[in-house]
Amino acid sequence: MLASILKSRRQILRASLGAGFLAANAKASAAAWLPPTPSQPAGPFYAPFKPLSIDNDLVFLPGRPQPADGDILHISGRVRDQSGKNVSGARVEIWQANRYGRYNHPRHENSNLKLDPNFQGFGHDQTDTDGIYRFRTIKPGAYPDSPTWLRPPHIHFAVFPPASAPWTTQLYFADEPLNETDFLLQGLPTEADRIRVTMTLGPPAPDLEPDSRMGKFDIVLGTPGVEQRKI
After folding, report:
1. How far apart are CA 213 and CA 74, in angstroms?
2. pTM over 0.85
3. What are the catalytic residues?
4. 115: closest CA among 107, 130, 103, 133?
């Protein structure tokens, strides 16, 4: 009888230890799973150009000697999936307003904001083997989206992985007062989500324009069809 009781207790202990091991493994696996960069809508000004873009430099347009108006930004980052694997060969597109808050898009033609003929407002790059992309652009201006809503400076991103659906998001800039009243940014569920789409600008590297700024924006692609919004 005693041997039977001890055997049962050993079985319960083993089962308990096994369950604890599985729970610990599950917790460790969940911790290793990267949270996706919050998906945000592409908005009404996705570029209608053909071809869609020229390159990853939005400061100069071919055939125009003058650069775009505004403060030059160098933005780079790494594209990964939620397992942490680098996504190489992905097309990364950006589109944005110019320094005056005007989009170079037919839907923004009725705007009273100034159009910059030297700024197309759209560009693309392709991630390298390490998942890295780079852009040279200008800092966009804020613009009124309605009589009661002034959108903060932001840049739209779309990532087209080689074998998956596109992932769209928006990049915001730290310390912009309008961030606090933007319902798209403030509508994200958590402060951590808002931080993931906010970039801090720093001084340039020695080989870049001395009056430019640079920042890093890493993108983690979520599960298509779950968090992702289509363009």
Report:
1. 6
2. no
3. 103, 143, 151, 154, 156
4. 103
